[in-house]
Amino acid sequence: MTLSDISAKITSLTGADTNQYTNAERIIDLNIWQQNIVGMILDSQDETDYDDPNYGNFPRKTVPLTTDRDYSIGVTEKMLKFKSLGIAYDGVNVRRAVPVELSATGIADSTAADTTQNATIDAQFSKTNPRYDLKFGSIFIYPKANSTDVASSGFMIAEWFRQAKEITLSDLTTGTLVPGFDDTFHVMLAYGASYEFLKGKDMKRAEACFRDLQVYEQRLRKQYSSKQLDRQYSLTGDYQSMK
Q: Which of 14, 51, 69, 149 could form a disulfide with 89 if both were Cys (CB 3.0 to 4.6 A apart)?
């Protein structure tokens, strides 16, 4: 379905045309429900990794290393969940970084200016087996890079899961945009927006829309939890003592 189709379905469900339920109002509700749907997908997905193809790129970034320990994640990245981090201190060999909760290790963190404590922290970690702590909207790496790593063009590769690309008023006016999830569930945007519109005006019809949304949600969760079917299974014996 295109946005034009979805908007027409909204009008059918609510009985309100774009004068009564304006495009500006519809955009707000469509984006609310698009993010709700993406949340359902991310909660349900198997080893396949969902991302909205309307972005036109992947939620992955290569970042040059600096001598700082922390690397901020900008709000423009729209990150919902962090996926993985690889670090190449030498600019060539990428090592998979393993998450660590530094506070649970008994090692006290430090400020950037505290060179003594930074050296103490880094001595506990290895560049061939790096760690990272995701906190305060930033990635903290252990050990941190030094000037030699920076001179060697060291870098890290971060991957994450992000929000759906926001639908704009221009998208709705043009009407040709196709939502970036399975066609089967595009109609959920129409039911979701209609529910938002009706719940303050006609609770009976709003509840009917919500019931339909729940049915679609069950189907969506089932579909996205079983996308990767190319698996190999094996059976192993389970020894049970008779004693």
A: 149
